[in-house]
Amino acid sequence: MSRSYGFDTLQIHAGARPDPATGARQVPIYQTTAYVFRDADHAAALFNLQEVGYIYSRLTNPTVAVLGERIATLEGGVGAVCCSSGHAAQIMALFPLMGPGCNLIASTRLYGGTVTQFSQTIKRFGWSAKFVDFDDLDALAAAIDGNTRAIFCESIANPGGYITDIRAVADVADRAGLPLIVDNTSATPWLCRPIDLGATLVVHSTTKYLTGNGTVTGGAIVDSGKFDWSASGKFPSLSAPEPAYHGLKFHETFGPLAFTFHSIAIGLRDLGMTMNPQGAHYTLMGIETLSLRMQRHVENARKVAEWLENDPRVEHVTYAGLPSSPYYERGKRVCPKGAGALFTFAVRGGYQACVKLVDSLELFSHVANLGDTRSLIIHSASTTHRQLTPEQQKAAGAAPNVVRVSIGIEDADDIIADLDQALAKATA
Ligand SMILES: *Cc1c(COP(=O)(O)O)cnc(C)c1O
């Protein structure tokens, strides 16, 4: 069949085929660490990357490979590598690009854990990050220097309410000859396709909506296959002979798949941030219903945000799906099917009222997670964004009087009723 399938079909079928050994229709969980070589020549060809196949599950595994192909297809990329978590995916995305003394330019509006990873932990590798407000494109361009190797942002930024103008940021990256990495966790490819808007790489925490039910941590990096790694000499690990793989030139050898092969042959081999097949299985189960869930997530989020905005106990709601949001029009361009299901609102009564609200909710779960079928809440300032300075908290949309919600796919009326009774207690 030559027609190209739609999203709903691909989220079920992409990457999967009946198991060649048994005919199993669902993707088997290949719970194995190693694979028997046909003979010594076969083993040598696999280790030389002359033949594609399975060696050892730190590198590749058939169950994990199906998930990688599915995510790559849904994002419109040429290849993907799955990792043990979203944070692992971020390090893996930067690893082929960076070296000691190199920096990346990152948006100020990021998941709290990413701010910490970029502002503190990567320094141990000799890498650094400069944080810039990505609404100020001149400041973004000005921050780029001779040692910059990547630009990093989120499509719909966690903790919510902010949407990045990906195409405009991609234009800045293009002019500087740099890859743009977009974390598409909060939007998912159903709401936003960063590669269509000019992104080079897309990273995911599959822990969230892609799995969708709060069962496993995982991550993925999708490569658009469009970046010319050899154009500038800035990415020697991809363009020049790589000493960590007996002098192989990845870009020359693998063309648009250079990044993906590098991430497996060197990244997973030496960093070992591998997704396990059982984890991939849960995510494959979840991803089959991604579009159906996201539709309901967005529908519920809009209803709840509208209700909150009209409630006098609430100071303001930052949801890009509300016409009152400064990001409403941009949202319609960047994520035309909806602004996600993650947003924040400020409660009258400040920090104490937020803590009381969180403790009074019954249906909502108080957890450091998002993108579950269940409605979730967190007071970012006392939890996920606790390590940040007050200025960083505010810049990240996590001020002390603000709570973040991840609206689930329960009955919207039940979600609203729960907020109603808890707000009554919080502001009494
Ligand atoms: C959760 C999250 C991460 C980190 O992912 P883990 O799977 O928890 O490591 C990164 N970015 C965003 C936007 C997230 O929501």
UniProtKB/TrEMBL annotation:
Record-linked PANTHER family: HOMOCYSTEINE/CYSTEINE SYNTHASE, HOMOCYSTEINE_CYSTEINE SYNTHASE
Record key words, sorted: Pyridoxal phosphate, Transferase
Pfam families, per database record: Cys_Met_Meta_PP
Cofactor annotation: pyridoxal 5'-phosphate
SUPFAM superfamilies: PLP-dependent transferases (SSF53383)
NCBIfam families membership: OAH_OAS_sulfhy
Protein name: O-acetylhomoserine aminocarboxypropyltransferase/cysteine synthase
Taxonomic placement: Bacteria, Pseudomonadati, Pseudomonadota, Alphaproteobacteria, Rhodobacterales
InterPro entries: Cys/Met-Metab_PyrdxlP-dep_enz (IPR000277), OAc-hSer/O-AcSer_sulfhydrylase (IPR006235), PyrdxlP-dep_Trfase (IPR015424), PyrdxlP-dep_Trfase_major (IPR015421), PyrdxlP-dep_Trfase_small (IPR015422)
Similarity comment: family membership: Belongs to the trans-sulfuration enzymes family.
Gene3D superfamilies: Aspartate Aminotransferase, domain 1, Type I PLP-dependent aspartate aminotransferase-like (Major domain)
